[in-house]
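Structure ticket #2291
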Amino acid sequence: MSPSDSVGRPTLAVVTVTYSPGEHLEHFISTLATATSEKPQVILADNGSNDGVPELVADANENVRLLRTGGNIGYGGAINRAVAEIDPEIEFILIANPDIRWGTDSIDEMLAVAERWPRAGALGPMVREPDGSVYPSARRVPGLADGAGHAILGTLWPSNPWTLRYRQDNEEISERAVGWLSGSCLLVRRAAFDSIDGFDSRYFMYMEDVDFGDRMGKAGWHNVFVPSAEVTHAKGHAAGKHPEAMLPAHHASAYRFQADRHPHWWQAPLRWALKAGLAIRCRLAVRSALRERDRAAGTD
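Resolution: structure written out below.
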């Protein structure tokens, strides 16, 4: 499939959210040139960077535009702001974290798969860790039991049945429809994005992609995993620097996701139990992350 239509109108725009991205953003832009034959407009939705990198990258690349959101409004909110700036005639929007490095032809491959899946609202590539291992980016939507089991036990007991069912680690790697896809890299059909009003901006950070994929599926669209397209995700640099803020945000989002889907009065005991379990896990996770950060700082 050609990434542009017969009259040369672009079919693709790229959006990323920046928050002092450092060297990651330069790798994002340089490898983007190998991922698609099109030269798409790139919007940097900046949530308050203070390292000067988004400004430098926008000045150095004519297809890159810096959009200041006015403050740290969260990931989903920043994406929504950027998408609102894109010509609605552009059919596809590539949403990705700034610490993504693109594999050769990865975007063009996802565009080709989108042609075969006309009801694909979102498509996601195979995501690799920096060491080359595969990150489980295509998962099922967690129910209350799976979500609670994974959230509370996932770190302490990684092979627990709830985590295995949720992460789908044992699933065959194949092109298929899944419950949701990692928001670290998503090719989204604009019509699908608009039909569900984009991301839920109540999710400041984390779980916004789970919510997005779940609502996409409920609206009749598919979330399609495309393992023939590959990217590498450095992931976690913001959380690693500020675990005392990022980990509570993660746990708050996990609770919001389940509370939204179990709102009835008779489900209140389940919500209370989940909230208590997540609070305990959050305290333990923050304590462990701070110890690890301090230990790493001591060895520098």
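Closing remark: The chain has a mean pLDDT of 85.
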